[in-house]
Amino acid sequence: MRWILVALMVAATAMSDVLQSFEMKRAGEQSAGARGLMRLLVMIVQRRYLILSIGCLAVSFFSFMALVQTGPSASRCPRRAPASSWKRCWRNFC
User: Fold this and answer.
1) What are 60-69's contacts with CB under 8 Å, separation 24+?
2) Cα gap 47→52, rounded to integer Å
3) Which DSSP string do the residues of 31-73 spell out, in sequence order?
4) Which of 35, 54, 58 has the alpha carbon at shortest distance from 44?
5) Which of 3, 13, 55, 57 has its CA 20 to 30 A from that of 49?
6) By 3-state DSSP, what share of the chain in percent is helix, strand and coil, each rounded to 5?
């Protein structure tokens, strides 16, 4: 289950980057002033590859969240771990 989530996260992130890059090359440079903001929002909604890219990012995010929840709680770092690591290093070198 864990590796399926990792593969899903990697594939969705890569697909999002490819779609976003394709849409940016196709669209060219865009700018908007105060009056053109509504026009820019309409253009964003009309670009289906950009919307699909945002959807892929959402899939990647939620698969990451599911991956974090499936991991064992023992792998999480306790609060005092950095302090004890620092003390251990200090004792070895001094």
Assistant:
1) 60/8, 60/9, 60/12, 60/13, 60/16, 63/5, 63/8, 63/9, 63/12, 64/5, 64/9, 66/5, 67/2, 67/5, 67/6, 67/9
2) 9
3) ---STTHHHHHHHHHH-HHHHHHHHHHHHHHHHHHHHHHHS-G
4) 54
5) 3
6) 80, 0, 20
Q: Which amino acid is at 54?
A: I
Supply 2's token pair: 């864990």
Structure tokens given for 35: 């009056």
Q: Which residue has the tokens 């594939």?
A: 11
d(CA 91, CA 94): 5
At 31, list the tokens.
């700018």
**Residue type at 32?**
A
